[in-house]
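Notebook, student rotation project (T.W.).
Task set for the rotation: take a protein with a known small-molecule partner, predict the structure of the complex, and write up what can be learned from the model alone. Partner molecule chosen: zinc ion. Sequence and SMILES entered below by T.W., checked by me.
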Amino acid sequence: MFVDTHAHLYGKQFDGDREAMVQRALDAGVTKLLLPNIDHDSIAGMHALVEAYPQLCVPMMGLHPCHVGEDFSEALTEVEHLLRTRSYCAVGEIGIDLYWDRTFLAQQEEAFRQQVRWAKELGLPIAIHCRQSFAETIAIVEAENDSTLRGVFHCFTGTAEEAQRIIALGDLYLGIGGVITYPKGGLAETMATVGPDHCVLETDAPYLAPVPFRGKRNESAYIPLIAAKLAEVTGRSVEEIARITTANANTLFATAPSLAAKS
Ligand SMILES: [Zn+2]
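Predicted structure of the complex:
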């Protein structure tokens, strides 16, 4: 049994075959689908999917760094209101993205820090989006790290040194996705060194499909392909990878009882 810890299955890319896609995930042994939020426009669709599959889909709430601009206060007010009134398994996805440009770095840092503090206050883990921004992101995570902080660096693609720095924080995990199957991605070599003990599995569907579906739409049914590659490079069995990563996901994303009581 597997958990897909990061999948945007409410996206319009799945409007034509969502039910069949969910069934394929179940058939592949993926029994939990965690849905990270993006911005205001993704909230209604995400909640609708959770309502349709309450035993299978679990939502997160947060504002994605690519949607943090000059003025993000209204968007964050909505995120905070929802976090305090509904049940979520994490604050996410949140973080810093400098891939396109650095114009709103200060705003991204402020929005990230604020959402990390809400997560700590509410006893929730964080799902971190970190793209071309490891130094900026880890600086905030290390500054905010205490016994209440836990989370995952979603779509981890860094070096072994960066992995060790994340693991050293205590309750921070590495989200491993389709990139591990890319021949020139470098992640297979990194994970051969790091090992699977601090990993959770994710697709980031509809993006970053693993080989042999690279370049096509990704979906949660491809999680076993990612597990098989992680097993191959770390010298473990697929069963062992399933057991380790599912246990990690359950530990990390167990819905906070304080919030569950409110919903
Ligand atoms: Zn994502």
